Every structure is written in C-alpha cells, then in structure tokens.
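Notes on consecutive records. When two proteins share a document, each keeps its own sequence and its own token line. Never mix them. Below: protein one.
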Amino acid sequence: MVLVGDIALVGAPAELFTQLGLEIKNQPPFRHTSVVGLANDWIGCLPDQAAHKLAGYQVWAGYHSYAELVSGERLVDQAVTMLAPLAAACEQGL
C-alpha cells in the first residue's frame, strides 16, 4: 500500500473482479482509494463468491487462477485491515 496525499493505492496480486475492487474502494478511511491489479505477483483472475456461483468468466479452477473460493473476500478484508493503521499514522503526522 502506498499513500499519496489523500489517495491510497492498494496493490493486489490478481485481476480482481469489479465487486471486490469496489468493496475496497468504498470503505473508509481514505477519501480516495484506488486498487492496482497484478501488483507484485500474478495469481490469475480473482472472482468474488457471487461470481463463482454464476460460473461465468474465469471462475473455474485452472491455469489462469490459483486461488480458492473465498480468496477474493479474504483479500478485501486484509486490504481494509491494512488501511486502518496507515490512516492512524497519517492522523498522527507520521
């Protein structure tokens, strides 16, 4: 994660399905949050659980995706968790 002014950049090692990226972007604590896909690794497409149920584009296990069913939601939870201390440090002027 990188903070530039009031913009937080969240790196994800996958091509996140739209809903996952929106869940990261729409949560506080920063006014602007952008998700950068394929950052530092490539684990393939990462769908959310709802997309898995629809069995559409790139949700089946294969060479294009090395993640399990709940990996997308876990990544969102971890990203949001990691943003909190970054925001606290900013408030303290660190």
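Protein two starts on the next line and is unrelated to protein one.
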Amino acid sequence: MAERILVDTNVLVYHLGGRSDATKRLQGAEVHISFVTEIELQSKATLQDGDLEQIRTALLNYRISDINPAIKQLAAELRRNNGLKLADALIAATAIYLDLPLLTADGGFERLNEVMEVRSL
C-alpha cells in the first residue's frame, strides 16, 4: 500500500522545478493536496502558458481536497492558537482533517508537531 501524505505547496514547486529530493519523496506516494496548493501553484504572475500546462497536468496526479465546514473550523483554531497565515492554516487543517502527515519544506509548521505529524523535506 502506498504511503498517503498531504503535500505543501513548496514541495510541489521544488518537484516541478526539478529538485530530485522533492521528486524522490513523492515517488510511490498517494499525494493529497489542499485546494489552497492548487491555487498557489497557478498564481505566480511570471508563469508562462507552458508552465501552467505543466502544473495542470501534474495536478491530475494528486487528490485535491476542497474546503468544508470542518476544515474551516480547524483552520480558525490553528490561526487562533498558533498564529499561522491563512493559507498555511488551511493546508494544516486539511492534513489534520484527512489524518495525513504533512510533507513540507516550511519550518514554520514544526510548531504544530503536537497536533499533527509534520515531515520535513
């Protein structure tokens, strides 16, 4: 059975940019992402049409979780208790809701180790 993980935006940016350490961590895994990551990947102003096509093709390989009332409440609690940015709170709340470890290159998530499993890239 494949490892199931929720992947933070930065890991996918590194993977799509060709960083082998990110690609290796994703190989063989059942990759879940938050809708926030889906939006963030497609939002950079300097993206060209070819970049967007690559991103949209890659997104077909991931399970994308949309917002729901439980994720909203968890995100609000995480922001209140941990001072997270909204996007980070939504991503972390999605991982908690799905009961998945979060794979990230953002050290700021380490403060959540008591409420969820955080794995560093």
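For the record: Residues 69-82 form the longest helix (14 residues).
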